[in-house]
Amino acid sequence: MTVTENAAPDLVNNDEHPLGHGRMLRKEDPRFIRGLGKYCDDVQLRGMLHLAILRSPMAHARIVNIDTSAAEAHPKVKAVVTGAALADKGLAWMPTLSNDVQAVLATDKVRFQGQEVAFVVAEDRYAARDALELIDVDYEPLEAVADVRTALAPDAPVIRDDLEGKENNHCFDWETGDAAATQAVFDRADVVVKQEMVYPRVHPAPMETCGCVADFDRVDGGLTLWSTSQAPHAHRTLYALVAGLPEHKIRVISPDIGGGFGNKVPIYPGYVCSIVGSMLTGKPVKWMEDRSENLISTGFARDYVMQGEIAATKDGKILAIRTDVLADHGAFNGTAAPVKYPAGFFGVFTGSYDLEAAYCHMTAVYTNKAPGGVAYACSFRITEAVYLVERLVDCLAYELDVDPADLRLNNFIKPEQFPYATKTGWVYDSGNYEPAMRQSMELVGYADLRREQADKRTRGELMGIGCSFFTEAVGAGPRKDMDILGLGMADGCELRVHPTGKAVVRLSVQSQGQGHETTFAQIVAEEIGIPPGDIEVVHGDTDNTPFGLGTYGSRSTPVSGAAAALVARKVRDKAKIIASGMLEVSVADLDWDKGSFRVKGDPTSSVTIQDIAMRAHGAGDLPEGLEGGLEAQICYNPSNLTYPFGAYICVVDIDPGTGAVKVRRFVAVDDCGTRINPMIIEGQVHGGLTDGVGMALMEMISFDPDGNCLSSSFMDYLIPTALEVPHWETGFTVTPSPHHPIGAKGVGESATVGSPPAVVNAVIDALRPYGVRHADMPLTPSRVWEAMQGTLKPS
Ligand code: MCN
Ligand code: CUM
User: Fold this and answer.
1) Which residues sit with their C-beta closer than 6 Å to ligand 2?
2) Does the ipTM surpass 0.95?
3) Which 3 state secondary structure label does DSSP give 227?
């Protein structure tokens, strides 16, 4: 099916909304648009204290002495805690999501600017911040490693001397694919194009920064933690392991969250400090970061230096791709990815093309920068992978002097090749790439644009058209090979239908703005015929939801969405048995008609799901052997990931006098299989495209040679506004996932993954008259200008 979707959205009144999938308005919006959401910072508890964190002003320094006496004497201060004090309790270090350790508070050394050194708990936020100024830390500065390329130099200072026997800054080596087979293909290829490209360090920068309220009850030993967490269940298990608290005594609540984008996947020292603060004082303790703290200390994204190589025949058949990557992991390896995937899902760098061979070797290093490494709508490093392959394809088109859209069309994996096993071991579940590509070209008017461009070039005007085609891998993941710190990546789901036919569905995933309260009600409604307005979605509270791994990597729809559909089918199966009793026919004689069971061949005999719900709980006998009630729960373990894809085309104009890039148009055709709520999908795509334009043109966390972070505010870390982005034009195709119960694939990260190469390819295309084949992001006016002058140095 290929449908375009450019007309004004025909939003339906929710009261008239059909029972299931479709453009339903978001159930959560009435509270958000009236400012009535309840975020962590809205939590107010009696006697609540406030926590502030003292952070290192240096990137690398030995801590000689910390004097906290003046801060302790502050009349409003209740506690001042240093790393040494935490070390006494065995809490100075905590595990990261990648089996490394990270300092909760620095004991021996500080290893990045902004690292947590001490915390103060005081009666109010102002007093806590004032008292930070009274703490006197004596640092002995050490040489910092701020350049990833020199991190492994023999004379580089060793950052992680806390790790036994560590004598350099090597973090890990990783490889995938077949080196020898790839070399053989490269040896016989007519054309080999090499290009180094840097995906700079960027930051998710959610509107709401990270924070929490910890409330430890000294009487019953229970801990309640309201926190900005994308994965409340996984966090609870980690707190149990770190703090030695029994898991059943910990309740993690993720209330409304003001954007996550991956930034709220890791556990941050501030959460642990707040828990310690509450235990020490016996009072609830609130901690909320400010913007600078969020930018300098929490999970960054990307930071890959990639040497890419693509091999092809002279008539444009792509044969193989090879890459060598230098990955900057900061001071602690805090990458959030399944344990067996230290480079996340970067292995899908073979993209959407039918290759003969592929190989990647990666070296990851420690530097004196903040830890992190997945966050920011990346689907576990697929953003980097897609950027690599889509830039390489354009570099090849440049060398062969062929049209980049044609080059893609000629090399796609064909529909009949699915399920398609890539040369790096991934099995793409389903795909039909050419219609998506053709649709994007039609929507944008590709041929006309090329004519316009040719015409403009004769006048010295700079216009560029950039294509990108991506395949994503989302829905981590099959328990057989995916876990985070030993926790398998399956999701529970529970559905209860009340006697009156209203229902509650409990999820293990946690929305940060994706509209789960709406779409999960729609998934259940589609299966069981109860209106979505009658289905309450409960999430984000470990005491009230089944165990599961949380929302990131666009996994909610592929994993929890499947769980919701299957649990609803389980309830429907039971409802059918009850209906057979009510209608006095055998189960085999019943037809399901979304919301009611009918007797085959007798349209007048039927019972609604609401009638059945009442009977399940009410008077009268149920069929032999059936328990009362109408509810079920399941735990869904996906058999594979889902592989959404998309074709994006960006059109830019560049001011030849200043190098300023204007994105004139952007067309995005996405395929995420069965579409639950097209309005929400478009919103997700619009947001991701905005992210992508931001990364391509303006976002970068940069450092000076001493490791000082130069991007610690929104004055220096630029994020796109309505002024920098065009009116988005979207389309879609539908290629269902064969293994997902409703055929849905994830979409939340697609646009962020797919759009940066489209923008960069467009800019480079515009600069063709200047002989520019590549320039690194962010393509700020000065970089574009330097590229035009031929003076741009590798970043
Ligand atoms: N959806 C749909 N039909 C599909 C696929 C998805 O209607 N075939 C709907 C889903 O039901 C859900 C939304 O689209 O309401 C996104 O679904 P999905 O792709 O499963 O992604 P997740 O819900 O797991 O969200 C995570 C994803 C990630 S990893 C990042 S990063 C990101 C993103 O979502 N962060 C966001 N989008 C965000 N949107 C907002 N507003 N805020 C964030 O922090
Ligand atoms: Cu990789 S950012 Mo999202 O997965 O939360």
Assistant:
1) 230, 260-262, 265, 374-380, 552-553, 749
2) yes
3) strand
